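Retry 2 of 3 after timeout on previous attempt. Resubmitting structure tokens to design endpoint.
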């Protein structure tokens, strides 16, 4: 568990993911081997963000007594020894070199290995650490901690997680923090209990945004906030809001004390605890935990153990794309996904009208917005750009906000409010038609889940026109749709593939089966679609198959026991949907279209949609052989919409009966 925490915590996590498999194995082996010799040791990061100090360190002190160190590189790591703390074993140090201590102007303070032969270098370090005299020195390096000052619950960091029940996203980030951060955070939280401060959580969509202050059990929002905690690059950050008897504003220059959770933060909190807060916002009861606000939110020991093993909580994907051939229900499913993303607790129980009503309601509230990408769509329309109007004959230029910026601003306002956070959804139709670099620009990085506001690696940029600070919060969900049969497109931008989760939506013929077996409708729609798609997939590919959604209006009429109306609708589907798509798919190659429709096997001209007549090339061009490329010497004709074949049930049944 401790190793998993180490590799997922700053600064190790920014290097570890780039190492090859062998280097990762060496790193794990080194940590385990050294732990076996020392019986455990503290690890803290140096301020340069590129190295670790390992040894013994008290949370209450800024510096520790480090025995060895680890330098982190892009492709490897290097071990180093603090020889002033390990005075035996000089003769075993062979594979590296001594580093001069500039402050003391002397050598023989640090010995550094090159990181080339991990096995040999680790062996030398283990040998020195194992020597008897060095081990005796280690005992004197143990920090002098007054156990009586540590609350009972503080002895087990994970016990705090059960107190913060229901905030599942907190568990994920908390368990990935360094041991130092956990210790400091626990000390601050338990100390706040002696100050009678409630501990409560805001909407878990924000990540773990946990607050100290006043909040009653039946209150939707907190009464007063003393301080809050949120994810940061080093684990957990804090922000104190109540200073010198005043609640500071949210403006950039308000001067709210803030920073990373560490030993210094403990002193900072002790500095700002005051009787003024308790005097203004009195309470005559024991302070509450987050688990007190929801009886069902407490976490069992089994759940906690599983969380420790696997710090991954199932969450809603913030960026997702539905892709598939035409007519597979992408738009249909987008409505459901958008509503449930905006309102996760909404229940519609299969009532499509209720779902659409909720969708329209959210659109009116601007919590769901819709945009379609195309080749000429750009950053200025999507994010922001300069626009002009004329006043008194003079042009007046101003920055005009795009749909993306507008919905991000709304989502951010909700994200930063004291009230329950609301989710916002941006639907992007035909997302692969647009030039992603041109539309998103530098903001493509901001939509990554780990870079969102509310996450540990969140990024904020300056917009080019307005100069405003801009970041994307975690309560904004992006849902795109993509038609895989669009042959006008080049290979999809890799920026999308890397940042979006893809959900494939292929034709599902099972939905075309009538509810009643007593229907008078004679055509088997399931066999009809499956047969045509099997032929298309063989002649072309699966991305150009026909979607089941084209035939859904027919099924609805069949289920209403209206066979004549259903057949009329089927005729329209073939004339207005199926045949035009086949023409596009096969570039008007009518020979292949005939194969898809089974016209080449049908008996009787009245059952054939595309007729074929031989062409007398000699009569047209003389005796010379003009068929140099083996082209078909036939003329193909699509039946006119008024012709009887469209009203012939056998013409449709013949598509699949010839292979039955």
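Retry 2 succeeded. Sequence:
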């Amino acid at each position: 568990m401790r190793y998993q925490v180490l590799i997922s915590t700053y600064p190790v996590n920014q290097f570890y993911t780039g190492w090859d498999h062998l280097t990762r194995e060496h790193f794990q082996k080194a940590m385990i081997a050294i732990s076996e010799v020392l019986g455990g040791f503290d690890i803290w990061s140096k301020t340069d963000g590129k190295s670790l100090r390992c040894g013994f360190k008290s949370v209450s002190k800024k510096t520790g007594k480090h025995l060895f160190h680890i330098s982190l590189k892009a492709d490897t790591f290097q071990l180093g020894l603090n020889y002033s703390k390990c005075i035996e074993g000089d003769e075993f140090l062979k594979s590296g070199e001594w580093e001069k201590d500039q402050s003391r102007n002397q050598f023989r303070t640090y010995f550094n290995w090159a990181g080339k032969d991990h096995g040999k270098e680790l062996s030398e370090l283990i040998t020195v650490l194992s020597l008897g005299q060095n081990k005796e020195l280690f005992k004197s390096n143990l920090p002098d901690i007054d156990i009586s000052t540590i609350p009972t619950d503080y002895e087990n960091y994970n016990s705090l997680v059960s107190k913060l029940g229901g905030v599942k996203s907190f568990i994920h980030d908390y368990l990935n923090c360094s041991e130092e951060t956990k210790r400091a955070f626990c000390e601050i939280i338990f100390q706040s209990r002696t100050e009678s401060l409630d501990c409560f959580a805001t909407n878990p969509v924000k990540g773990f945004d946990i607050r100290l202050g006043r909040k009653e059990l039946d209150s939707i929002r907190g009464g007063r906030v003393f301080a809050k905690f949120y994810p940061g690059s080093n684990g957990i950050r804090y922000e104190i809001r109540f200073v010198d008897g005043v609640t500071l504003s949210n403006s950039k220059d308000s001067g709210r004390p803030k920073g990373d959770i560490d030993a210094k933060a403990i002193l900072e909190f002790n500095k700002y605890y005051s009787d003024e807060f308790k005097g203004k916002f009195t309470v005559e009861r024991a302070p509450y935990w987050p688990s007190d606000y929801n009886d069902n939110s407490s976490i069992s020991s089994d759940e906690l153990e599983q969380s420790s093993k696997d710090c991954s909580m199932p969450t809603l994907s913030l960026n997702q794309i539905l892709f598939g051939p035409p007519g597979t229900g992408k738009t249909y499913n987008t409505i459901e996904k958008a509503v449930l993303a905006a309102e996760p607790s909404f229940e519609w129980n299969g009532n499509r009208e209720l779902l659409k009503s909720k969708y329209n309601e959210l659109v009116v509230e601007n919590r769901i917005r819709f945009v379609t990408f195309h080749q000429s769509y750009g950053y200025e329309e999507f994010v922001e750009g300069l626009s002009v109007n004329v006043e008194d004959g003079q042009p007046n230029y101003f920055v005009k906000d795009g749909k993306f910026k507008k919905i991000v601003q709304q989502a951010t306002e909700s994200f930063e409010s004291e009230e329950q956070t609301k989710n916002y959804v941006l639907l992007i139709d035909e997302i692969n038609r647009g030039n992603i670099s041109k539309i998103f620009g530098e903001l493509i990085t901001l939509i990554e889940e780990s870079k969102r506001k509310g996450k540990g690696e969140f990024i904020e940029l300056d917009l080019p026109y307005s100069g405003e600070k801009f970041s994307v919060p975690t309560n904004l969900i992006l849902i795109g749709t993509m038609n895989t049969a669009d042959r006008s497109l080049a290979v999809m931008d890799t920026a999308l593939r890397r940042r979006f989760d893809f959900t494939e939506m292929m034709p599902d013929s099972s939905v075309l089966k009538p509810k009643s077996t007593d229907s008078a409708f004679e055509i088997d729609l399931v066999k009809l679609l499956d047969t045509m798609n099997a032929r298309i997939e063989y002649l072309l590919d699966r991305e150009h198959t026909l979607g089941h959604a084209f035939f859904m209006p027919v099924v609805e009429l069949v289920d209403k026991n209206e066979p004549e109306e259903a057949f009329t609708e089927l005729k329209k589907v073939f004339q207005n949907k199926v045949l035009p798509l086949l023409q596009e798919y096969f570039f008007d190659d009518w020979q292949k279209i005939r194969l898809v429709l089974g016209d080449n096997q049908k008996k009787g001209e009245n059952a054939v949609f595309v007729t074929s007549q031989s062409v007398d090339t000699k009569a047209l061009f003389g005796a010379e052989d003009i068929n140099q490329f083996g082209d078909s010497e036939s003329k193909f004709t699509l039946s006119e919409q008024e012709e009887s074949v469209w009203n012939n049930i056998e013409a449709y049944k013949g598509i699949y009966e010839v292979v039955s």
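Attempt log closed. The longest strand covers residues 224-232.
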